[in-house]
Fold:
Amino acid sequence: MQNDNVKFKVIFLSLCALLLTGCAQNVDLRQPASTQRGEQTKESKSQEQKNINADESAAVPENAGAENGKPVKILFVGDIMFDRYIREAVEKYGKGNYNYVLEPVKDKLAEYDLVVGNLEGPITDNQSVSVGTAMEEKNNFQFTFDPAVAKVLFENNIKLVNLGNNHILNQGEEGLEQTKKYLDEAGVEYFGDTGHLETKFPSGEISFVSYNYSVPDSAEAAVEEIKSAKEKSDIVIISPHWGTEYKTGDPGNAVRALAHRFIDAGADAVIGTHPHVVQNSEEYKGKKIYYSLGNFVFDQYFQKETMEGLGVEMSISSDRSMEFGELKSEMTKRGQTIFKVRP
Structure:
């Protein structure tokens, strides 16, 4: 999963076990999950990945952007959930092939040096308990994704995922371990279980830090992790899982204050998830904050706002200056995601 030009280094921080909280409500077409990585050195992680698959590509292409004078292009997408109605749609319309879900956006995703998303649930070989459930049932919020999903993410250039959310422990610690195993085998990197992930591009190192509202005292841990990452990396990006579900527009004073605190600690950009709708963005001290990207792959068809998502395009030049663009997405009721044509 590594090569001579691209190295991944994971520095770990022990976090408290996550709360198994569920998302709010859904409608008849089903709806909406937390982490811990054991301590592991850069060398042991590298050797483990080589042993898993010596021929696997690195998560970031070795010819990424600035090596040839071109900016590094990263796309951030929102919440990704492959259970419940999405699982049913794959069987009904996609003949069991999970690539069906991302088929309309595959070519666009391939244009970026890296695509980053929030993996809203574990990948395990456990049987789904959420398929066919009503929104008021407990199991409606207990997710597991088919093992094939890991490879589908890789094949669609989603090669880095955030595991720091309130559904990742839906299948317990064993489910989290299976998730990491399947992601490792597929060549997909991850962060948000503990610590931060450093990715080395030709133009410098980028660190990805996670904040998960469902972990006690995790705001303090995230601030310290940002400071630590800033000492070693040229750019620090934090992906918080936070806020009020289904609240569009203004994220609220508490979330805004925390975002500003992350910037003050050294973050160069804040890219948020969890509300399942797109929220406002702003600039603070010259740094960009996107409070929520909404859904990217989900089955929340009960309102227009939950069916829409926002992709954030980040372009990083060789001088490490950053420019941002936006790409709107939409989820169809046949379980696929499409990008909207720009005006």
In short: DSSP finds nine helices and 15 strands in the chain. The two ends are 39 Å apart (CA to CA).
